[in-house]
Amino acid sequence: MLKILVFVGIVFIVLSGMKCYVYLRFLRFNPFIPKYMSIGFLVILAIGEVALLLLRDAPIARWQYLLVGSCVVFSYTLFMACLCVDIVRFCFKRISPKDSFIQSRRAFGAKMTSWALALLFSLFSFKAFHNALNLPPVKKLFLRVKNLHSKISIAMISDVHIGNTLGKAFLEGIVEKINALNVDIVVIVGDLVDAKIAFVKADLAPLKDLQSKLGVYYVAGNHEYYHGIEPILEHLQSLNLHIVHNTSIEFESFNLAGVSDLAGYRFGKLEPDLEAAKAALNPNKPSILLAHQPKFVYQNDVSDFDVVLCGHTHGGQVFPLSLLVWLDQHYVHGLYHIPNAKHTQLYVSSGVGFWGPAIRFLAPSEIVYLELA
Question: TM spans, by residue (predicted)?
Answer without folding.
Answer: 6-24, 36-55, 67-92, 112-130
